[in-house]
Amino acid sequence: MQQRHKPVRRCLACGKQALQIELVRIAKTPLDGVIVDLGPRKVSGRGAYLCKTAKCWETGLKKGRLDHSLKTSITPEEKETLLVFSKTLN
Length: 90
Prior knowledge:
The chain has 90 residues and is an alpha+beta fold. It has one domain: YlxR-like (Hypothetical Cytosolic Protein, Chain: A). It has helices spanning 54-62, 65-70, 76-87; strands spanning 8-10, 17-19, 24-29, 33-37, 46-50. The strands form 2 sheets. Strands 4-3-5 form a 3-stranded antiparallel beta sheet. Strands 1-2 form a two-stranded antiparallel ribbon. A hairpin with a 6-residue loop joins strand 1 and strand 2 (17-19). Helix 1 runs antiparallel to helix 3 (76-87). It is globular. The model has no long low-confidence stretch (mean pLDDT 91).
C-alpha cells in the first residue's frame, strides 16, 4: 500500500521546511483581515506559514516578511495580536 502524501511548507522567517501540521498558518481574509488559522479546515484566503517559535514570529512581523507574503499591510493592532499569540506557543 502506498503512503499518503504529506504536504510540506516553508517557514517564511527562517526558511525551514516542515510538515504543514508542524507550522502555524496565518491567513489574509477579505472580511476579517489577518488571522491565525488553527482549524482543521483551512480558512480561505492567502496564507503564509511560521514555525512555532517566538523568534520566527518576531522576525516575520518586524522585518515585514509577513506583509510581503500576504501582499497586504498589517495594522499595528494585528501585529500586536499576532505577537501575543506567539507567546502562547512556547
